[in-house]
Amino acid sequence: MKTVKLSNKIGVMVDSLRLPLYEGLKVCRDMGADGVQIYAVEGEMAPENIDQASRKKLKSYLDSIGLEISALCGDLGGHGFQDAEQNPIKIEKSKRILDLAAELGTNTVTTHIGIIPEEQDSPIYEAMQTACEELAVYARSMNAYFAIETGPEPSARLKDFLDTLSTNGVSVNFDPANMVMVTGDDPAAGVRLLKDYIVHTHVKDGKRLKPADPRDVYGFLGYGGGTDHAKIAEMVASGEYFRELPLGKGNVDFEAYFNALNEINYQGYLTIEREVDQNPISDIAEAVGFIKSFR
């Protein structure tokens, strides 16, 4: 018997369905989602590719079928904001994605910023801090957020980093499975630690099969590049170290995770993100049902 009762809206990462956008939106509506998260870095949803008429058309269609956008995904890849030379371009692109988000009715863009180093006096830490400070100030000027996805580093290190910024315009997109699969962190404890920063969440499950260096999973500026690193990275990608699984089949304790979210009075979206090779529609529909079973 489930002891946690949820009232949060349910979102779906529409790109996980591997359908054309408008078809995917209708499927999300039909499976009972309240909102969607949309990837907005490349392709038709990139801010430089979607003109004003297309933005209005999309917003109108979402309204007509009763869907909201929980967040846009603005993960620019590479090493996040670790490379000071590349950051001006990435910062500008991130701002344009946030502008698009605001036009479409959401105030949240999720992203990865790269693994935060332990050494706060390192050039990489400084580059990330400078970039995130600029993004945080811009976001708060719009009453919005860039939300860092959890997983690349322990939640305590992420909180220490966020505490150095002047505003919470850079906050947290909490993903419990990344923590379980990569760092071995406890999601419920992480929720309580990061409670002042959580503005969006993912509902995802997985299992850690054996320890992996986060740098082999997410990359790190100046790390690896040799034969041994390439071999390890290939093994990590193969599923030898961790595996994403359907909700309830992995090691995320959802009773504890949802209870922690209730404890901190989190009112935002629970958004399903799944990497599914076969039958994504049925798999994600089952995930929606899994969350609804806690209502």
N- and C-termini, Cα separation: 12 Å
Q: Could you estimate the helical fraction of the residues in percent?
A: 40-55%
- Tell the overall outline: globular
Unreliable segments of 5+ consecutive residues: none
Write down the overall mean pLDDT: 93
Q: What is the count of helical runs?
A: 11
Largest sheet, strands/sense/barrel:
8 strands, parallel, barrel
Computed Rg: 18 Å
What order do the strands of the largest sheet run in, or round the barrel if closed?
A: 1-2-3-4-5-6-7-10
Q: What would you call the structural class?
A: alpha/beta
Number of E strands: 10
| Helix and strand pattern | EHEHEHEHEHEHHEEHHEHEH
Beta-strand fraction estimate: 15-25%
Organism: Cytobacillus oceanisediminis
Pfam family, one: AP_endonuc_2
GO molecular function: isomerase activity
InterPro entries: IolE/XylAMocC-like (IPR050312), Xyl_isomerase-like_sf (IPR036237), Xyl_isomerase-like_TIM-brl (IPR013022)
Description:
42% of the residues lie in helices and 16% in strands. The longest helix has 19 residues. The model has no long low-confidence stretch (mean pLDDT 93). With 295 residues, the protein is an alpha/beta fold. An 8-stranded parallel barrel has the order 1-2-3-4-5-6-7-10, surrounded by 4 helices. A two-stranded antiparallel ribbon has the order 8-9.
